[in-house]
Each structure stands twice: as C-alpha cells, then as structure tokens.
Design brief:
The chain is an alpha+beta fold. It is built from 12 helices and 25 strands. The longest helix is centred in the middle third of the chain and has 15 residues.
Amino acid sequence: MSAPRRPRPGHVSRRNFLRRTGYGLPAAALVGCGSSGNSAGQGDAAQIFRHGVASGDPLDDRVIVWTRVTTEQPRAVPVLLEMALDPDFGTVVVSQQSMAAPERDQTVKLDVAGLSSGTTYYYRFSALGATSPVGRTRIAPTGPTERLRLGIVSCSSLAHGFFNAYRLLARRADIDCVLHLGDYIYEYGTGEYGNVRAYEPSTEILTLSDYRQRYSQYRQDPDLSELHRQHPMIAVWDDHETTDNSFRDNAKNHTEQTESDPGEGCWVQRKAWAIQAYREWMPIRDNLADYVAPQSCDDQRDPERIKAQERIWRRFSFGDLVDLHMLDTRLFDRDIARRPNVLTTAGSPAGINSANDVQDNGLFANCAAPYDEDYSNIGDAQLDWLLSGLKESQARWKLVGQQVMFGQLKVLGLPEAGCALPNTGDVVSLLENTAPDSPLSAVLGAVVDQLPTVSASSLYLNGDQWDGYPSGRKAILDTLRDNAIDNTVVLTGDIHTSWAIDISDDPNNPASYNPITGAGAQAVEFVCTSVTSPGLDPLDGVSDVLRLNNPHMKYINLARRGYMVLDVTTERCQGEWYYVETVTEPGVDGESLGAAFFTASGDNHLQEAASASEPPASVPKLAP
C-alpha cells in the first residue's frame, strides 16, 4: 500500500490527508534494537544467534532453514545444523555442516533434502561454542490430503507499533505454514512514517548495508523471531522491501541520480541491493546462490543472471488438496501505474506517467481503450506461467498468493458498458448519501464539477491494484471461465484492511453476477489486514457506501490490525480474520475473531461462516 513520499512544498500526500481527517497513533516509548555491529563472545548464544532461526519454502521432501552468526568482526565461521523428529533431539536425522560468511552478511541458508513428506521436524544450529534456539518446521504433504491450515500476514511497519499479531500467530500449534504477502520491512527513516518505534539506521535505507541493517533490526524483534521459530514461512515481497510504489524501472519513493544531482542513486542498483539483502535474510529458496548485486550504476554484469535473481514467483503443492501460486506484482515486470480518465487533480492525467507523482490516487474511469494490450503488473512470462499452472493443476484448490487487491474497488459502481465518464448526477447522488463530515464527501465534492454529462462507466479508486491493470485480470478470468476451472482463491495483502470478495468480470452487471446467490462469480478473494501498518480508519464509516457500490464485496473492515487463518478442506476453503487488541503496546495478548467466510468446493462464491473453524484435535508440539 502506498505511503507518503517525503513532502514537497504545496503538495498534500494521501497519508497527510488521512492524518488531517482524524487518523493518528499515540506515541509510545521508543524501543531500540541492537544492530549487527554489536559484539558477540565465544559461547554467548544470545549474542551469536541474536537473529534467531527460521525455515521456509517447504516442498514434499525438503525445506529451507536459516540462521545468522554474529561475530565481533565479519569472518567465515563453521556452523552445524541438526534436525530431529522430537524437540528434545532424541532422534537426530540430519547433521549438516555449513559456513556463515561475510559475503552473505554472516547468514546461513540450507536447502535440506531427503526429508519425509507431511512430517514436523525440530532443528538447531551450533557455532562458536554456542547453540541456537530450537526451531520447528513442517514438510509439505504428498498424495491424498484432507486439511491444510495457513497463517496469513502482511505489512509490518515497525514504526507504527508492536508485532502482537506475529506473537499470537506463533503460538498456534495448528498452523502448517505462514504466508507473508509482502511489506515485511519498511524503508523509511525514523519519524517519516510512524513514530511508535525508531528505525535502524535512522535514515531511509538506500544501500546494501542499509537494507541489511534494517533486516537485522526486524529479526531481533521477539515476536517476529518467534513466528519464524515456530512455523515455516512462504514469503513474497511487495514494494516496501525496496521502496514505496516500486515497479520494474523505478519507484515513487526514489529520486534517480542525474549528472547534477546524486539523488538516491540509480534504481537498478538500489533494487539489486534490496533483493540481495532480502535473499540473504529470508528463508526463501534462491535461484542463484552466488548472486552478488551490481557494484555500481554502470555495472551490468550478467543481466540474465540479475533477472533470474529478481524472479520470486514460484509454486508449492500440498498433496492433492492445494496448489499455491505465489506472484510478484511489483518488481519483476510491472509497468508504471497509469490512471487514464483521472477525474481529480490528484494523479497523472491520461497518457502521462510520472514515477515520482506524489498524489497518485485520483479517482478514475476504467475502460479498455486507454490501455495498451501489453500493459501489465506481472509481465507476459509470469502471466503465462500462472495461466498454465491454473490449467494444469490437479489439486482441489488453486490458491494465488500476491500483493495487491484483485477484485474491483469502485466509488461509483456501474456495469462495464463503455468508456464514457460518469455523469455529474451519478456522483451527486452518491454524495447526497454520504455523511457530510466523511472524508469521502470532500473527495466526491471536488469531483462533481469536473464530470461530463454522459454516463456509462464506473468510478474506480486505486489504479495501483489490478483495477489499473485490467488486461491481466481479464486474461486470468477468461482462463478460469474457458477451462471451467473451479476453486480458485486469491490471497492478498498490501492495503492494510480486510475484505472478502466474490470475483466477477463485471460485478455491477446483474446479467453477469448475482450478489444474492453468488451466481456468476468465478473465484473468491481474501484480503488480509496489516500486522501494524495503518489502515483507513477515518473511512471506516463509509464501508456501507463501498458495499453498496461493490456488491461483490461481502465483508469490509478498514480499521483493525491482525492476521488471517485460512482453513482448507476437501469440502470448503474458509478465511478467518483475527484482530489484535492494540499495536501501540508490546506483549498484549488480547485478540478477537472479526469475521469468517468460506467458499464451498465448486461454488466459486462466498458465504458467511457460523463460527471459526476448529483446530485439529492433535497437532505437533511447539518448539520449546
């Protein structure tokens, strides 16, 4: 989700607008985390393994395990990995040597093969006379599989609070794996976006050293460390792992260097540094284990190797129950977000693209004509890979984990009948039914005088999501329809809010979609809220207006933080939103179920569940 670029004179960012309309978090005492430069003595486990342990990317015979060895001076250090079938290590099944080296920021990442499908393992590392905390991981099942439970998280701004959601999810022994849908870290300096906790380094991160230090700070957070220790994670980046609203060729929150101004360096190198740090610090399977980022803006060594390292989209199978397709809608091949037919002064006018446009969230009318056919947020190669995977999948459920909202989000909902702009009467009617003190009222009032008198098109809110890239969405929905593919579930982060959505190519057209019965829906979408990042609290009162104009949206919560549990069986796939009591205080255990919706196998539309799903009667022990 977009956050503010450093303010320019005379401009008001969307975040500043939200603050002025009532949003704000109370400040808490700043909590600093030690950087990777602190010393560690021989045998001092708390210092040597201060970044904990982690696992991820489980397949049916292997898993990635990770740690970092902190030393007084960077140097190569031998490390021993042990894996066992029990938390007491009475039955050790893996003993493997590796090295923690300065070239990878003293991190260790092993792809341990030869493991048994559907099995829980416990693991630990030893180095310099010290032993790490014990971690717990689980291998993906193969063959007939009756049930899968996933934790889903996204958007953890350390400056906006404490990761209570991570801690509560870590305690759930019933979770098979955690999906992190992006914005694992944020790039801002202290006080630039949130003021509950201070950042390390205190400035915006730009270099490889900066990105490494920010990951070091995050991974010393006790709640995030515990989440990694207890559950394997499948992660993808969103934009803030590099910088706000990043795409293939640049980012909104990046000032490209010129001959007269160093700016923030060149985007090619900054992106490569961010990717290198991500791959060093995250338990993700690497395409190129020996990849090193370019050393300068002019260093174009092995461009094909660089592109291979940028590829994070990949697929996982959980027996015959689930195929999980993880996408990258940001860095790999995303064109800059364009907003044709923009109806407010906020945003680029039709045909103009600015990588550094501060006000990039103008309302716009979406039609096919202003878009090039090859205009995409994932690129042809990734789209072809996804469509082939959906068509070839033999699993009961096809999950698509990705960053930005897939379903349409409209302020004015009309059938997709043409490319004319909405008329004044349509917006005036919407304005009359909006509370006068609502922020939406001010936005709609500013739009009225700019509209023509002929009505035919919906009014969309956010061109950063799939609404701004309709050709890719159409290709996916056409594939589902033409191949009679059922049971597709889209899992989304980014927007810091909670949504349950029926997916239809024209949700405001009764001939295409029936919002009462769900007939005509081709898939469903669960949008996970943020761990800490601020939502749209001032707009929470307009949820009913959004539901009125978006009949395919079955649940909306714009104010709460937390996590999701996705419970998948052969009969149904159910999403559950759990909300934390607060993010401004550490160690608070209060949480509540916000909502639960499910789609029955073969239905392709949502129904509200009577209650949360029951955890399995027997689950493997948490790591001690």
